[in-house]
Design brief:
The protein is 36% helix and 21% strand. The protein has 322 residues and is an alpha+beta fold. The radius of gyration is 19 Å and the shape is globular. The relative contact order is 0.18.
Amino acid sequence: MNKPALLLRQTRENLVETEFYGYIVFSDENKQIFAYGDAGDYPFFHRSCAKPLQAAFADELGVFEYFEMTEEEISVCCGSHTGEKLHIDILKGLLEKGGLSENDLKCPIIPPLNNFDGITEFSPLHNNCSGKHTLMLLTCRKMGWKIENYLDFEHPLQAGMYEKIKSLCEITTELPKTLDGCTAPNFATPILALNRAFLNLHRFHPSITSAMMAHPYICGGKNRLDTHLMQISPYICAKVGAGGLCTVLNTKISQVFTIKIIDANMKARTLIALEILRQKKWIDESSIDKNLLNEFFDYGVYTETGVRTGKYEPQFNFSAHI
């Protein structure tokens, strides 16, 4: 049976108020180095961590070259964008390349994650998964597949993505399946297999990881963990997923870790990811924007008027593994 570990504790006036449990799994060249918590072979759905892996199928079929996609266009298709104007403009241009429109997208109409423009009418483009869906449609266009049912599990697009994910994860057995929040098929694997997938992604599809790292804001946006992790290191490729997931690849040394927070708390996921980078010395804090560290990666607990009353305290130490 899988056993999550205590990863982060929140105190207020030195009294423990909240504790966050989950897993951290580290891998190197497809082998587990160490872990906090015992996830065993329990399969977790990849959620949006799957987006770069799904994009690998399009890359394999030559979609990037066929539509002369730029790094910015690849990046927005691999990420969970915040629906800002620059994201929407890139996606509109991509749809035009395929003779498509936003009406062809099957992702739900929801408000953008960041509505800095104050818009009141939304389209499927504002869904944070519309980049993934756009690339799915372009793949269908390139291959001559029907677009009306591109989300069906039996559609050649989804069947191909499923096999590609299994290959990247180095799994031959059948995977549990479900519908993601955006209604696209999503699959589950053990955490270690997800780590393998990101190592293989960088090995066999470097155009994807390179595009994400070169354009982290387009891949996500303001106040997105994966965006900020990629902004603080030129060697980090990161992707978050709903359900408390975050996978972080160090492309310089070919190591990767995945975090799974049991209660999916986003603040906990953020601070745990940063603490891992600090302890593993994957970042140079002297070169990081101090506002970013002090605002997004703040360990303090505050009142609504800004008085600090407590702190978040990591409960793991990698000193024995460095």
